[in-house]
Design goal:
Elements (H helix, E strand, L loop, with lengths): L18 E2 L13 H7 L13 H11 L6 E5 L1 H10 L3 E6 L4 H8 L3 E6 L8 H7 L5 E5 L11 H14 L2 E5 L12 H4 L6 E6 L11 E5 L2 H10 L7 H9 L4 H22 L5 E3 L6 E6 L4 H9 L3 E2 L1 E2 L10 E5 L3 H13 L3
Parallel strand pairs: 1-11, 3-4, 3-5, 5-6, 6-7
Antiparallel strand pairs: 2-8, 7-8, 9-10, 10-13, 12-13
């Protein structure tokens, strides 16, 4: 299982709907009023989208607090990661991480240097300084997937100073950033940097994986370089319409933040009482678990036969079969998961 969300492969394992804990999508679903906006956008399907995405970039700019000329958009965050990888000869990343940080550059024949996180799943700044070279692309998740840990603000500044000193480039993947505490904003923290691109997406927080809308804030110089190599019309009319609505729904945004915070704390506290696992701190909408008994296959099989699918974490380079990852879901589902985990303790 390279990516989560593949419940179709296991529909014969359980007579009913499978609760997908392998997929980290907002359990509240998309913003309620979005459907009306999609219905109104139906007629726009008869024409090509604006090839420069001017309206969408303005809406993203207002949401992120940057200039529209500094905004890039793509067919999901992965499309942007893939395109940026084309512009650099070598990519550096820290494992464990989202597998596409490694795969996308490799597909293009680029060199990939994989550095290990420390024992606490944190970035070693000295190691980064020793290994990063001029012209490198450094890709980091903030928060990181699968660890759920955000880069502390002071550490992020330290990373940027190394990137700047080495004449490298930082691509910060913040697909889960809105789920985190609001003690710092990386876009504000790194404002004015000309060798940084911060990307986010509608996929996770706004529960719109099918829209395929990714967006980012960078310098106007890099934004122009990006547009020179991106595919035309990669963002469709429905994604553009979503951009008119989702970023303005402040009630939905605030309600999601509160809900995820409460359910994340509930899961961490309850699972932390179970003796056969170690629960790692998380600032995202998913939690990494270390299995002190069993392995991922045993836990997966027990849970799938009870209607719950978790993520086996051995597919993440740097982790073995003693790790699993779970998403933060609705309270009733979380209660069921905790109950099943407690049964495994007996």
């Amino acid at each position: 299982m390279i990516h989560g969300g593949d419940t179709v492969s296991y529909i014969k394992e359980y007579d009913g709907d499978i609760i997908d804990y392998s997929s980290n999508i907002n359990p509240l679903g998309p913003p309620e009023g979005l459907k009306d906006e999609m219905d109104r956008a139906y007629t726009e399907l008869r024409a090509y989208p604006d090839i420069h995405y001017r309206e969408l970039r303005r809406n993203v700019a207002r949401y992120l607090g940057c200039d529209a000329r500094d905004v890039i958009v793509g067919n999901g965050a992965l499309d942007i990661i893939s395109n940026v990888s084309l512009l650099f000869n070598r990519t550096v990343t820290f494992t464990p991480c989202f597998s596409e940080y490694i795969k996308r550059p490799a597909v293009y024949g680029k060199q990939v240097l994989k550095l290990g996180l420390d024992n606490n799943f944190r970035i070693d700044l000295k190691l980064l300084s020793d290994k990063l070279c001029s012209g490198d692309l450094l890709i980091l998740g903030n928060p990181n997937n699968p660890t759920g840990l955000r880069i502390p603000g002071k550490t992020l500044i330290g990373i940027y100073e190394i990137v700047k000193q080495k004449h490298a480039f930082l691509l910060l993947d913040e697909a889960f950033f809105e789920f985190c505490p609001s003690d710092y904003d990386s876009i504000e923290l790194l404002r004015g940097a000309d060798n940084v691109c911060i990307i986010r997406a509608a996929t996770k927080f706004f529960a719109l994986p099918g829209i395929r809308l990714g967006y980012g804030c960078t310098s106007d110089v890099f934004a122009q370089s990006y547009r020179n190599i991106e595919s035309p019309w990669s963002v469709n009319a429905y994604a553009n319409a979503a951009g008119r609505y989702i970023f303005k729904d402040k009630d939905y945004i605030n309600r999601t933040k509160r809900y995820i915070k409460d359910e994340r704390e509930y899961l961490i506290n309850e699972l932390g009482r179970i003796g056969w696992m170690r629960v790692y701190k998380s600032e995202a909408n998913f939690i990494l678990l270390k299995l002190l008994k069993y392995d991922e296959d045993i836990v997966f099989d027990r849970l799938i036969h009870n209607g719950i699918m978790i993520r086996k974490a051995s597919s993440f380079e740097g982790l073995d079969k003693t790790y699993i990852r779970i998403a933060v879901k609705g309270h009733e589902s979380n209660e069921k998961l905790i109950g099943l985990m407690k049964e495994l303790e007996q």
